[in-house]
Amino acid sequence: SSIGGAAKRVFDLRDLAAAEVPVEVPHFELDEDPAFWMDRNVQVLVRLRPISAAESTAYGQKRCLIQDSSKTLSWTGHPETMFTFDHVACETISQEKLFRVVGLPMVENCMSGYNGCLFAYGQTGSGKTYTMMGELSKDGNELSNDSGLTPRIFEYLFARIKEEEERRREDKLKYICKCSFLEIYNEQITDLLEPSSTNLQIREDIKKGVYVENLMECYVSSVKDVMLLLLQGVANRKMAATNMNSESSRSHSVFTCVIESHWERDSMTHLRFGRLNLVDLAGSERQKSSGAEGDRLKEAANINRSLSTLGLVIMTLVDVANGKSRHVPYRDSRLTFLLQDSLGGNSKTTIVANISPSICSSNETLSTLKFAQRAKLIQNNAKVNEDASGDVMALQRQIEELKDQLTCLRKQQNAPGPPSFLLLNSGSDREYNTLAEDHQSSCDLSLLKQKVSHLEDVLVGSLRREKLAELDIRKLEAEIKHLNRLVLT
Ligand code: ADP
Ligand code: MG
Description:
It is a single chain. By secondary structure, this protein is an alpha/beta fold. The chain is 42% helix and 19% strand. The chain has helices spanning 13-18, 53-59, 95-111, 128-132, 149-167, 223-243, 294-321, 334-338, 362-375, 392-413, 420-424, 429-438, 442-488, and strands spanning 42-48, 65-67, 72-75, 81-84, 87-89, 116-121, 174-185, 188-191, 202-205, 209-212, 218-220, 252-265, 268-280, 348-355, 386-390. Strands 1, 5, 6, 7, 8, 11, 12, 13, 14 and 15 form a ten-stranded mixed beta sheet that branches. Strands 2-3-4 form a three-stranded antiparallel beta sheet, with helices on one face. Strands 9-10 form a two-stranded antiparallel ribbon. It is globular. The relative contact order is 0.13. Residues 1-14, 16-22 and 417-440 have low confidence and may be disordered. InterPro entries: KIF15/KIN-12, Kinesin_motor_CS, Kinesin_motor_dom, Kinesin_motor_dom_sf, P-loop_NTPase. ATP binds at residues 122-129. Belongs to the TRAFAC class myosin-kinesin ATPase superfamily. Kinesin family. KIN-12 subfamily.
């Protein structure tokens, strides 16, 4: 079964031979560069798709682009313009190769606790869905040549999880993955895994960050699990589009997986998590104002709202990267509000800009190339999401020990010691030291101060973990409720 109108076979050179004007398109192999993400947080790749049958019928093999290398291409309109990107994937680059360049490093990043985001941008028909999803198979066992980045990412992710858990068995390393799938259409968020949940709201929480309220989250532990969610979501996306009498190309879809790992070392539990967002954007073509009335007009404005805000956010971020102090209008659209971490924030982000080489969409292609060029200038600040906490018993033991030391020190000082709040809050260092030096125990005191502050960190982490566990329980309860409902219907 092919999803999103994915081609039944990949680009075939025989198509060219059969075309009226045979054209030899050079192939440029892509570089797999494992060091790329070590010091960079934003990557931009431009992907060309083969000229389609319809384009060929209308304009033959006439192109608006000439590719010069695996990183550069020229737009041959007026004025002729050369562009350089991290990668330019030519028409003959396979889905597997694209995965190895873009998807694989993203999985590694998320497994080590970075947030990751992958956007597919481009006009309708340029290959966004082919790139992100491609062909989806029901069993998830065998991917085909046309399977896109998402199925390949999860096939690789679960293989790597197995490998890592085995390699670090002594640490009791465990990974947990949970997924959600939503659509933004007309500035309204619909849960693609629970399509009766429409018009969901975005909330912001100091601990949780930005999240969608009441969004279904499903635990997954195999490609098959993910494939079922994808198929379900894609079917619901189509259905929603049909009901609203529109095409799904007007909506944005966001598939999210939170990859959490925990392990034990020195009687401490360590926790890392990375959020991976896979985003298939609405078609970037400008909405024709003629003929757009009523609902259509509103829809056009709203679709423009998320996409135009995305453009605006990126432009503002470029200013910010150049040292200007600017307000970034994340909150002006659902898409940018939800994905603010992925844009200029805590994330390693890849933008795949899809284009057609055919002359028939020359202007749209130029505007996509300009968008991609701007996006390259964004500066993100990705950091590992990490947390360490001891178990409650170990913490209590440490607290008892510290209390003993404190009593001991106070006795040595033979005077009323510094009030305990001074030890616990950050009070000025000099104050401690003068007090302590008087009694020849400055080392002890500063050591104690360090220990207390470390213990505070550990406690904060521990409480946070508890909160997370609570959240998980609530989600599981919601899932059980949902399953019960399914069983009853
Ligand atoms: P979009 O999601 O941007 O609207 P699609 O991904 O649906 O576009 O692609 C439009 C058509 O082009 C589909 O039939 C798809 O299979 C085909 N296509 C896109 N990219 C490629 C590619 N790289 N190789 C072969 N066919 C492609
Ligand atoms: Mg699409």
